[in-house]
C-alpha cells in the first residue's frame, strides 16, 4: 500500500511502519489559504496581526508543514507517552517526521531568530506566525484534518547572571510595557491566583513571583485586547445583518490550563451568543525551553489559537469545509479588510447512512492497547477511512450506538455517516457507492464484522 518514499515540498522522505499520511491529506499542502487576501482566513489573520504590530512583533508564516518529532514534541517537553504522539492522532511521514500538529513546533526556531537578530533588530522581541496544521480527528462541521493556527510570543531580557536577584527591576521594566497597552472596559472574569502550587506552579528555580505576575499581566492585557478587537468586529457584522438589534455586551474569562511548555498556563474564553467559547491557550514559557533555544537570559509568554474557529464566528460560516471551497458563490462574498456575514448560497439535501459492525474479538478500545495485548480500536481510524473515501462529501460522522454482547462480550458499534456536498445535490447512487466502499474498507483495514 505505501510507497517507500514520500516527496513533499521538494524533499524526499523514506517511509516506514509509522507512515500514515494519505494522499487526500497531502493534497492540501501548499494551498496557503491564509495568503489569499480576500479569503476569510486571511482577513482573520490580518485582524489578529494588527494587534501585534511592528516594531515589537514580526508577523511571519511557515509554509512547509513537515517537521521533526523533535520540534513538534520533544523540544516542547511532551512526555514519551503523551496521546498527541500517537499514530491515531497525528499524521506521520515516518518515525522521526510528522505533519506539524501545532504552530508551537516552530517556537524554538523563532526564539533562536530573536537571539540571532539581537543586534540588527533589537526592538523585535516578539512574533506571530501562521501556518497550516494537521490532526487526525473526528468529522463534523467544526473539525477538518487540516486547519490553521496562529501563534505569538513576547520575550524580555533579564541579567545574564543571577536574574532572580534583579527580578524586581525586570518586573518594573515589564510593567512599564504593560502601561503602553491601551486599556479596555470589557468585563474580565479572572478568579484564580496567577500562581497556584499544584494547578499552576511557578517555575521557582528560574522565576520570581513578581516577574511572573508582570509577564502574566502583559500577556492577559495583550490577548484580551486582541480578542475584544475580533469580537467587536463580529458584533458589528452581526448587528448589521440583524437590522441593528442590540448585541449582548462582551465578557471574557481566564481559566487555568496545562501545556507541557508553559507554567503557569491559561485558556481565554469569550461569552458569545449564549455560550462560553474557548479561544486560545497561552502561558509563561518554560525557562528550560528558552535556555535550549539560545535565549537563556529572557523571560516571556506565548499563545496559540485556531483560526477557523474564530473565522467561523466572525463571518458566520456554518461548515469548516467551506474554507477549502473554490466555488465563486463562496469566495466572492469576502473582501480584504472587511468583516461581513456570509450568506449561505444553498443547502443541499443530506443523505445519511448507518454502518454497524462487531469489533474483532480481541479489540481493545480506549487507546490502551499495551495493557490488554489486543488489537487497538480507535475511532479516528474509522474517521480516516471515511475521509479517504468520502473526502469533502461527508459532513459528519457520529457514533449512534455502542453495546457489548452480554454473553460473548464482543463489542458492537454503529456509526451514522452524513453525506452532503456543499456545492451540489448528491444522487442516491453516488452516496450508496461511497458507503459501500466505506463498508468494504472497514472490514479490510480494521478487521470488523459487518452486521
Ligand atoms: N500549541 C497549543 C495547542 O495547539 C497552544 C499553545 C500555544 C498553548 C502556545 C500555549 C502557548 O493547543
Structural category is alpha+beta
Q: Report the uncertain regions.
A: 368-372
How many extended strands? 17
Biggest sheet: strand arrangement: 3-7-8-13-12-11-10-9
Rg, alpha carbons: 24 Å
Pattern of helices and strands? EEHHEEHEEHEEHEHEEEHEHHEHHEEHE
- Provide the helix percentage: 25-40%
Average of pLDDT: 94
Shape: globular
Give the amount of beta strand, in percent: 25-35%
Please give the count of helices: 12
* Distinct small-molecule ligands in the complex: phenylalanine
How many angstroms separate the termini? Answer: 27 Å
For the largest beta-sheet, the strand count, sense and barrel status come to:
8 strands, mixed
